[in-house]
Amino acid sequence: MHYPILTESRRIETLLPPEGRVRMVLDTDTYNEIDDQFAVVHAILSPEQLNLEAIYAAPFHNNRSTGPEDGMEKSYDEILRLLNFLQVNSNNFVYKGSTDFLSDGETPLPSEAVNDMVERAMNDPNGPLYVVAVGAITNVASAILLEPEIIKNIVVVWLGGNPHYWPHTREFNLAQDIHGARVVLDSGVPFVHLPARGVVSHLLTTVSEIERYVEGQGKIGDYLAKIFKEYHNDHFGWSKVIWDISATAYLINSSWVPTDIVHSPTLTDAVTWSFDNSRHLMRVATSVNRDAIFKDLFQKLQQAE
Question: Distance between CA 29 and CA 61 in Å, rounded?
Fold first, then answer.
């Protein structure tokens, strides 16, 4: 596959931390566990910072689905459920994504989500479209394979994989679709990586905090509190990572998610990182301001009630 070539100066310019209100689409395996729901709500409740144009259902396969297609369908239904609680119209806003993971690095999996992503990226010249992905990267990789020219018009922000110093990168989102991850890493698309372990994993919260700041904040607050509590049977001394709000937080206030410019790593067959300083540049998160991010989410839930 031949991708358009971006100059490093152009790539670095595109990778500057976002300022002002940004255009974004959200690609999410919403039913995979319980953190995607918080990210969807965070994005919708942040209209001053985020122009959320569309939400895409991503495939996943774990004990909450019978396969990637079932995972995508359940995620789609969960998105509609959240929008109903928030009284947001889903027409021309929510799209079904791929029904499988990529089988190689050259064959896209067309879907409503992929087609919509390509159309939005190609048809609006007003600044980059931030493609925020918090699940398997299948839909995004398929869009790049279907129309490589979109890499000139988008910035991909992805929660997937582990830090570059980690001994492996067999994190759930990345490991589900290794071909898709390679497409994104190798395409040269402007890319912001949010590593899981040791970085985003600091976004912990507890039942006590959820009861204090989320429960009682309308139907959506009660639902988020319910699924949080139901996720684990024993709440004594228990906390839960809400991974995916790192992605919305980066666009809302990039100082909450400090990042560095580095050379893009190569993803090996052993699902580890390999390094070559001749490769293109990307941005990678090094930490998160846990308190500021949760404060923003909790305040917006209270204001929306």
Answer: 10
In the predicted model, is pLDDT for residue 1 greater than 90? no
Within a domain: 3: no
Q: Which domain holds residue 247?
A: 8-304
36 near 244, Cβ under 8 Å?
yes
Q: In 215-291, where do the E strands start and end?
A: 239-241, 259-263, 266-267, 273-274, 281-285
Q: Compute the half-sphere exposure of residue 266: CA atoms within 13 Å on the CB side of its CA.
A: 9
- For residue 295, give the CATH number of its domain: 3.90.245.10
3-state helix/strand/coil string of 148-217 = HHHHHCEEEEEECCCCCCCCCCCCHHHHHCHHHHHHHHHHCCCEEEECCCCCHHHCEEEHHHHHHHCCCC
Rounded to two decimals, what is the model's pTM? 0.97
b/e map of 13-37 (b: 16 or more CB within 10 Å)?
A: ebbeebeeebbbbbbbbbbbbbbbb
Read off the pLDDT of each residue in 94-118 and give the average, rounded to a whole number.
Answer: 98
DSSP 265: P
Tell me, yes or no, whether 1 lies in a domain.
Answer: no
Distance CA 172, CA 264 (A): 20
Q: Is the pLDDT of residue 305 over 70?
A: no
Give the pLDDT of residue 125: 66
Crossing angle of the two packed helices 218-230 and 290-304, in degrees rounded to 10:
130
Total domains in the fold of the chain: 1
Q: What is the CA radius of gyration of the chain?
A: 18
In angstroms, the CA 96 to CA 98 distance is 7
Q: Is the pLDDT of residue 80 over 90?
A: yes
Q: Is residue 170 part of a domain?
A: yes
The band of 127, judged by pLDDT with boundaries at 50, 70 and 90, is confident
Average pLDDT over residues 71-90: 98
Residue 35 forms part of a structural domain:
yes
